[in-house]
């Protein structure tokens, strides 16, 4: 037996020890939460090589978009505070009651964006209402179209958008389309290649699911933004896929909610898109073309909220916490995925204990089975102090909405789960407008009337194997 044959187990053990040691040092230097650090360190030592590799793939934020680095290298599209002509003369602050003024001040401190008056915001239900409006805007575009989406399926809906975008290019309109690399892999043929063949400039955020391009697989651009001529914007939770067209009667229909925005806040949608586009492609978008001066057109005060694992880290979480803190009468939450962290769970329970009516509307059956199991494992914690959970029937409801009292709404791409709140790049909008909130409250009431209440007794009556299955799924909630 040679010396190498005798010594290799010791060499392998030494290398595994050093790898675990290096991984542990990296975790101690870079992780912000004790539980996350303890979990990853435990995995690195208990499964020395496998655990270390898992951390290298899933545990490290490789997207270097620190504010000082990004802003120094980008000609940021101006938002209204850098476009005096946009708000001349300045619009007066919107009249808000004291709790909403406190909420607005809190979100002021959380975000870099200003709360802007003079906006018109229209909710659009499902692709049946949203897609025709979006396609009409693209077909009427004169100067520019900026589109960012997580999923762009090349099905009947995707083909409609591709044709409209190609027609805009043929008219001389400047068109930019940004698609997430993971989301692009959802369909065949892949949208980026099809759109490029049509002459459309496309950027792909991240490398998708290809093993040797894994650094971005866990950090996705989940934003849904469309801005036409810098003046008409759309955002919300809706991807581009035919399942959102309920009238088509697809095999897996999906209810959803999107919003059309006009007014000064549209500049903040452009700003978010421009940063992502420059980060992805290196091209800088000149403000004069992509963000013209915007005049007040409506009663809503609104603000865009960018969130992601960079200098915008946890801004959505902090905004939600500020909204919960300001509630006095009722809070209504509609979300497809509900896996709040301990801080949000505590805040929800405090709200319920204070006598605020708390309604949470979730799908009866999740489109992601393991996520549905994990949600059931956690619901008892939020129902313990009086929160009411409603389960909406099929088709699956992908809507994302939060309402506080009678004057504040939060909508956009973010879910109530760790992936949206800590890993993905998201874009949401907060809005102060009693008329709009009343309209959205009626929509939520309609959803509740169609749903059934979930009781604690039903959760408790789950069999032991089901409880164990749900609990095991919950352990993976940070990455679901």
Describe the protein in words.
It is a single chain. The chain is α/β, with parallel strands linked by helices. The chain folds into three domains: 3-59; 67-95 and 119-300, 2-Layer Sandwich (Endonuclease, Chain A), CATH 3.30.870.10; 315-479, Endonuclease Chain A (Endonuclease, Chain A, 2-Layer Sandwich), CATH 3.30.870.10. Helices cover 44% and strands 19% of the residues. It has helices at 3-30, 34-46, 48-59, 67-73, 98-110, 126-139, 156-170, 181-184, 191-197, 266-281, 287-290, 315-326, 342-353, 369-383, 418-423, 434-450, 456-460, 464-475; strands at 116-125, 144-149, 174-180, 201-205, 225-228, 232-236, 254-255, 257-262, 300-307, 330-334, 357-363, 388-392, 396-397, 401-404, 408-412, 426-432, 452-454. The strands form two sheets. Strands 4-3-2-5-6-8-1-9-16-15-14-10-11-12-17 form a 15-stranded mixed sheet, sandwiched between helices. A two-stranded parallel sheet has the order 7-13. α13 links the parallel β10 (330-334) and β11.
